[in-house]
């Protein structure tokens, strides 16, 4: 019974949308969930419900599946977060300025503390100025000063009086030192007058001055003690005055934060520090005050600022997406400031990273970008293991220098990390990093496709509606919805599945929207989707046009009519990043006297890949099982892809190669108006291959170029029939009997289609029926064996 080609209804599955009862997506409820990703959604839901260490997520799948969109949608609409979120602030450590302290505050309180302190410091500066600039303070300070002066003058007066009794005066030099001078009456002795004195008188003056100097040294020690006592009393007076001024403002502030012991403790420490640094407010030292106020924002002493590192919204857990995961962007850094040529840094120059902003919530990062950036992956693992966000200087780690820097107190970390990546990166991390599986215990595996049925088509229509609503696009009528669903099925490579590459569908909708607007339409129709697809193909099909030009000009040799021995048309797929297409390849086989080997020229010149070589070995095994059971095949066969100058891989040409080899051995010619694709096993059974639509379309296009003929067609494995979603022009050609697609289960069926002769089966003795291809091959081999034995 002759092989019957597939009917046109088997080549394409039209979308019926039987459950769609609206006129456009405008009246269709948008789908809140990402369609078809229940497995991944449940994994995310599971991980987000566990607070223990290590339950972070690796979202694995190809780009364009909507991984980030699905996670963001789940977090914004369904994530029930029960833990409070906090503001994180850095403040000065008044005991050790190199180790700034962390304040953990309820959401919203951090900025409030900052503003409260700014207001209080503004008022405090004025209050202190007024407190130290009034008559009461001056009189008390003057009294202390006068008391000191009186004591100093009295003691010096007594010493001066005693000196005068011994004709010695006490004077002060220009440098401020005390000096004793012998007197000649009321005037000091000159050198001449002193030398004129007798030896006894000179010795008397020397002894008197030595005794007086001993008393003076004792007096100077007393004066120093009195000055220290005065300074202590003056400082005590200043502290009393300042305490009155500060307490007035601080008491209310401390009371307002009495529910936060950490903040309350800091405010009390700050009050003590203000008392120790009153000169900053009183501007006793202009340079010191200038540096203290060298702020980048407001005129507030830097040491009393509050650096609100992270300010969260109340009861809204943060969800942060880090698109540029550099070390500083993730873990923060400390800036340097310059003032009048002086470079300095302090806690107010600490800047947060995304891990700080996401603390208490979720941080989403691309896995490949993390691994590309130096030190980021190690830092991320360290933070997740210790559950602390430590802000360390990357420069110091890299250069191993001893540069003085800040060592801020680490922040307790409570964050979920979600990494987005592909399978290759996932396997690399699992294989090479032992900590990965401990820190990322949950894998959210995103599907590439979903089953196609009435319910899933309806969900897909709702998904299309959500894209139209979210992007403010024109809405789609049922025809456009159906065409997009059919395109999705084509993208999945299966009539019974729908592609879940949401990015591709969203882009198609945007391009269809553009075509509709160019046509001044108020709704997207199927024709607009077709134009968008055609426009997309035109933009990316330069390589296909270049390949097809070779067939047009005859540069690439191919026959689509007639018959030839040892020559068959195989099909292959060529692909760029965003486009794939099929094209036929001529495979030829030649034989010569030998030992039964099948030599793969592609492998010999290292153009053939390992999978292709495996396919050749499999067909060789099947050929040997048919023709070499009784005796060795006395031929060496060579096969090659003609005009192939690049690499060849894959086993989808193994059935074509077998047909070419059998034709070369038997001498039976093969039809050139047919092409074939499909792999085979050691029993000759046809196995499915990929890219079947592109391969069929490629041969159809070449047949159109070389001259169509009603007998032309393609042979495919029957297991590939469900993958068919062919172009409309091919379906029309099949309907009119101008092109044929044959589905086979065994390579013998392909032999029969190519030759018009039964392939033949071996009987119990290994013999074949006459008038079969295998019988003709066996006869020729037997003749060769007899000749070789006679020789």
From TrEMBL:
Keyword Transmembrane helix: no
Single GO biological process annotation from the record: proteolysis
Top-rank EC class of the record's enzyme: hydrolase
Annotated coiled-coil segments of the chain: 209-243
Sorted UniProt keywords: Coiled coil, Hydrolase, Protease, Serine protease
Keyword Amino-acid biosynthesis: no
Superkingdom assignment: Bacteria
Enzyme Commission identifier(s): 3.4.21.53
Catalyzed reactions per annotation: Hydrolysis of proteins in presence of ATP
One family name in Pfam for this protein: AAA_32
Active-site positions on this chain: 652, 695
PROSITE patterns: LON_PROTEOLYTIC
PANTHER family named in the record: ATP DEPENDENT LON PROTEASE FAMILY MEMBER (PTHR10046)
Family: Belongs to the peptidase S16 family.
Protein name listed in UniProt: endopeptidase La
Organism: Grimontia sedimenti
């Amino acid at each position: 019974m002759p092989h019957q080609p597939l009917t046109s209804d088997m080549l394409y599955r039209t979308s019926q949308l039987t459950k769609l009862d609206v006129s456009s997506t405008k009246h269709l409820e948008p789908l809140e969930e990402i369609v078809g990703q229940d497995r991944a959604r449940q994994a995310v839901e599971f991980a987000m419900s566990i607070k223990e260490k290590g339950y972070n997520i690796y979202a694995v799948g190809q780009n364009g599946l909507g991984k980030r969109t699905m996670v963001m949608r789940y977090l914004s609409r369904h994530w029930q977060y029960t833990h409070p979120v906090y503001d994180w602030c850095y403040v000065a450590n008044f005991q050790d300025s190199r180790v700034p302290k962390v304040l953990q505050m309820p959401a919203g309180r951090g900025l409030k503390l900052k503003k409260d302190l700014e207001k209080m410091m503004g008022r405090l500066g004025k209050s202190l100025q007024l407190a130290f600039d009034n008559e009461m303070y001056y009189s008390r300070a003057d009294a202390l000063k006068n008391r000191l002066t009186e004591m100093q003058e009295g003691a010096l007066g007594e010493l001066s009086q005693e000196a005068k009794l011994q004709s010695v005066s006490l004077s002060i030099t220009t440098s401020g030192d005390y000096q004793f001078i012998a007197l000649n009456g009321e005037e000091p002795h000159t050198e001449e007058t002193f030398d004129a004195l007798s030896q006894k008188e000179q010795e008397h003056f020397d002894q008197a001055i030595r005794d007086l100097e001993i008393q003076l040294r004792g007096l100077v020690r007393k004066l120093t003690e009195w000055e220290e006592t005065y300074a202590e009393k003056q400082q005590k007076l200043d502290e009393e005055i300042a305490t009155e001024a500060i307490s007035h403002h601080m008491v209310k502030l401390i009371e307002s934060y009495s529910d936060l012991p950490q903040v309350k403790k800091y405010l009390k420490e700050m009050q003590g520090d203000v008392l120790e640094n009153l000169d900053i407010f009183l501007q006793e030292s202009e340079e010191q005050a200038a540096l203290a106020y060298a702020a980048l924002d407001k005129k507030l002493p830097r040491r009393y600022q509050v650096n609100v590192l992270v300010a969260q919204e109340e009861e809204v857990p943060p969800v942060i997406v880090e698109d540029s995961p550099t070390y500083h962007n993730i873990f923060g850094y400390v800036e340097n400031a310059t003032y009048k040529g002086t470079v300095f840094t302090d806690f107010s120059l600490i800047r947060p990273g995304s891990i700080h902003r996401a603390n208490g919530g979720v941080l989403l990062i691309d896995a490949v970008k993390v691994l590309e950036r130096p030190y980021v992956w190690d830092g991320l693992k360290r933070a997740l293991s210790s559950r602390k966000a430590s802000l360390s200087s990357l420069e110091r780690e890299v250069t191993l220098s001893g540069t003085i820097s800040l060592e801020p107190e680490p922040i307790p970390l409570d964050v979920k990390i979600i990494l987005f990546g592909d399978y290759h990166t996932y396997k690399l991390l699992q294989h090479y990093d032992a900590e990965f599986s401990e820190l990322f215990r949950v894998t959210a595996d995103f599907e590439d496709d979903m089953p196609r049925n009435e319910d899933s088509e309806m969900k897909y229509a709702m998904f299309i509606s959500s894209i139209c609503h979210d992007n403010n696009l024109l809405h789609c009528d049922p025809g456009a919805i159906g065409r997009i669903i059919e395109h999705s099925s084509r993208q999945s490579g299966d009539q019974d599945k729908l592609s879940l590459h949401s990015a591709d569908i969203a882009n198609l909708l945007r391009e269809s929207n553009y075509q509709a607007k160019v046509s001044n339409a108020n709704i997207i129709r199927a024709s607009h989707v077709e134009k968008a697809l055609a426009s997309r193909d035109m933009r990316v099909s330069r390589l296909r046009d270049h390949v097809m030009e070779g067939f047009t000009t005859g540069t690439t040799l191919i026959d689509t009519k007639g018959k030839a021995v040892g020559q068959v048309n195989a099909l292959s797929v060529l692909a760029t990043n965003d486009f794939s297409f099929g094209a036929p390849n001529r495979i030829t086989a030649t034989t010569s006297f030998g030992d039964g080997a099948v030599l793969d020229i592609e492998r010999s010149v290292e153009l053939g890949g390992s999978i292709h070589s495996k396919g050749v070995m499999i067909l060789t095994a099947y050929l040997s099982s048919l023709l070499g059971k009784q005796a060795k095949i006395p031929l060496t066969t060579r096969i090659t892809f003609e005009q192939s100058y690049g690499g060849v891989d894959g086993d989808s040409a193994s059935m074509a190669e077998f047909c070419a080899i059998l034709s070369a051995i038997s001498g039976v010619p093969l039809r050139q108006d047919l092409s074939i694709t499909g792999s085979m096993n050691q029993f000759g059974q046809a196995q499915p291959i990929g890219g079947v639509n592109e391969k069929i379309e490629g041969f159809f296009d070449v047949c159109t170029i070389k001259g169509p003929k009603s007998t032309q067609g393609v042979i495919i494995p029957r297991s590939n029939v469900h993958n068919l979603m062919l172009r409309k022009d091919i379906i029309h050609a099949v309907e009119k009997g101008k092109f044929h697609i044959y589905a086979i289960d065994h390579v013998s069926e392909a032999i029969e289609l190519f030759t018009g002769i039964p392939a033949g089966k071996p009987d119990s003795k290994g013999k074949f029926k006459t008038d079969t291809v295998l019988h003709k091959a066996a006869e020729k081999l037997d003749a060769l064996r007899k000749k070789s034995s006679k020789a």
